[in-house]
Amino acid sequence: MPEFNPNRLLHGNGGAAWWNGKKLVTLQKAEAKVTGDFEDINVCGDPATYSVYNGYSGEGTLTVLKIDSDVLKELAEAYNSGEMPEITVVTSLTQKGTNKVERVSYSDIVVTEFMLANFEKKTKVEEEIPFKFGNFQVLETI
C-alpha cells in the first residue's frame, strides 16, 4: 500500500469551471452530483429487498462572485421567450504537484432558478446558479 502523501491531497484552489466555454474566473464553489433512481423489488418467500436501477438524475450549483450580468441576461431572455439555451458546463480539479486533472462535462442543462437581485451593504455579491443536467461525461481522472 502506498504511503499517504499530503501533497497529493486535492484542494479546492485547484478547481475551475467553464460555462459554454467561458471560464468562470470568480468561481467560489462548484458542486454537481448524480442521484440514482432505484426501485425496490420484493419476491414472495424471500425476506430481502432488492433494487433495480431505473436511471439517474443530475443536479448541481455553481457559485461565483458577481462581476457582470452575462448569466442573468442569458437566463432572463430564456425564461421570457420560453426557449431554453443549450448549456454545457465543464469542471476541473487539478492535483497540485502532479498536475493531474479530474474533468467532468455536463450537458443538457436547465437552470432551475436564478436571482434577479441579492445584495447587502458591505458584503461581496455572490451569484448561485442551480442547475439540472441530463448527461455527464468523465473526461479525465487522476
Features:
single chain, 142 residues, mainly beta, Pnp Oxidase, Chain A, seven-stranded antiparallel sheet, 8% helix
Question: How does this model look, in words?
Answer:
The protein is mainly β and 142 residues long. The protein has a single domain (6-140), classed as Pnp Oxidase, Chain A, CATH 2.30.110. The chain has one helix at 70-81, and strands spanning 15-19, 22-23, 27-42, 49-65, 89-95, 100-111, 126-140. Strands 2-1-5-6-7-4-3 form a seven-stranded antiparallel sheet, with no helix packed on it. β1 and β2 (22-23) form a beta hairpin. It is globular. The chain starts with 14 loop residues before the first strand and ends with a strand. The relative contact order is 0.24. The mean pLDDT is 92.
Kindly report the average pLDDT value.
92
Q: Spans with pLDDT under 50 lasting ≥5 residues?
A: none
Name of the CATH first level: Mainly Beta
**Structural shape:** globular
Radius of gyration: 19 Å
Fold-level CATH name: Pnp Oxidase, Chain A
Give the distance, in angstroms, between the N- and C-terminal Cα atoms. 17 Å
Give a brief outline of the structure.
The protein has 142 residues and is mainly beta. It has one helix at residues 70-81, and strands at residues 15-19, 22-23, 27-42, 49-65, 89-95, 100-111, 126-140. Strands 2-1-5-6-7-4-3 form a 7-stranded antiparallel sheet, with no helix packed on it.
